[in-house]
């Protein structure tokens, strides 16, 4: 996905729960922010489970000391954190 806020990925799913059936929405969005004068590489994560925001995180690294493996680990950790929250929600 690309937007004015950056580029990244978004997954979503609609769910039906309860009696009477109600529509509930879950999503995870990981976004790399565009280059700025601050010279940082920033990733933001937003996630919701059944219409409730459960994850809002932002992590960054200075471009001067950028470490690709560490940045990948941050992204993996954010996705894992959301997956754990989904599993706990049932």
Structure description:
- By secondary structure, the chain is of the alpha+beta class.
- The protein has one domain.
- The protein is 24% helix and 51% strand.
- The chain is built from one helix and five strands; from the N terminus they run βββββα.
- It has one helix at residues 68-89, and strands at residues 2-3, 6-17, 22-32, 40-49, 52-62.
- Strands 1-2-3-4-5 form a five-stranded antiparallel β-sheet, with helices on one face.
One letter per element, helices H and strands E, the order comes to EEEEEH
Mean pLDDT: 91
Query: How many E strands?
Result: 5
Strand order of the largest sheet: 1-2-3-4-5
Question: How are the elements arranged and paired?
Answer:
Layout: E1 2-3, E2 6-17, E3 22-32, E4 40-49, E5 52-62, H1 68-89
Antiparallel strand pairs: 1-2, 2-3, 3-4, 4-5
Summarize the structure.
The protein is α+β, with helices and mostly antiparallel strands. The chain is built from 1 helix and 5 strands, in the order E-E-E-E-E-H. It has one domain.
């Amino acid at each position: 996905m690309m937007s004015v806020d950056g580029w990244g990925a978004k997954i979503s799913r609609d769910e039906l729960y309860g009696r009477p059936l109600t529509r509930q929405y879950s999503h995870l969005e990981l976004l790399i922010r565009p280059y700025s004068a601050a010279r940082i590489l920033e990733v933001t994560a937003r996630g919701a489970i059944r219409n409730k925001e459960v994850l809002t995180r932002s992590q960054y690294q200075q471009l001067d000391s950028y470490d690709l493996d560490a940045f990948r680990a941050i992204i993996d950790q954010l996705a894992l954190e959301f997956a754990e929250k989904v599993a706990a929600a049932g």
